[in-house]
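Appendix B, example 12.
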Amino acid sequence: MPAREKITVIAAACNEAEQAAAWLEHLEWADRVVVADSGSVDGTPEILRRGGAEVIPLAASPRPLIHAAKNRALQEVDNGWILDLDLDERVTLALRDELLQHAAAASAPVPNAAVAYRVPFHHYVFGRWLRHGGWRDRHLRVYRAGLLAYPEDRAHSTPIVQGEIGDLAGAIVHFAHPCLHDFLVKMNRYTTADAPLIRAHGKGGLRNRAQLPARRLRWLAASGSMFWNRYVKARGFLDGMPGFLAAALLSTYVFVEQAKVWELEHGRERESAAGDRA
């Protein structure tokens, strides 16, 4: 029986000590684990190394965007298949078996075969699996080494793939936000990182939205549209209070994102005015 190709799991991490050990336990079937760590101070690198992972230390200040860190991890892998898996995500048995099947060496190359795959996600938010509200999605997380890279112009970016893209059936379970505090901390981190990039490129952020003009009604309308689409149109109300909270917080995210861009521009204007008076 021919040997299969190697499967490498890559990730970007920062202060994930509570997740690291459990994450590695679910990856015993992988051939290699490579993690780019952005200055963790809670023992995350040590836990990962004890579990057999390769850890690439990155500068903590300025902290790199998550996809810049993932690109650094990708540089360490030059063959086989890659599974991009965050530390708050777990692979189902169905997906594991599917990955092992795809990694099995074929007797002959297949013309026009996919070089990357989208994977369905099951998102747990505030302790509940959200089945509605726009949370049933797929993400491109499996690909051949050397054929994918992330743009580094925003915190959440769509990868660029050199080849055909397919779909897998097995899922990734994402324990996205166990509590409100976690959501707010991440929202603050990502919106702060995205604000200068949105200002520079005219768009970006969580869904690569265009920068809005500094008009209060436009901001309120954008936030309201997010809530309507998630809670009403996509039937987030069927997920009870967690569905309501998720829709409300995502609408807040839109507002905070635009507000931080305005704050950045307003601060530059004040600095320029002060310089003119000096």
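The two ends are 78 Å apart (CA to CA). The helical segments are 17-25, 44-50, 66-74, 93-103, 180-201, 216-233, 240-277.
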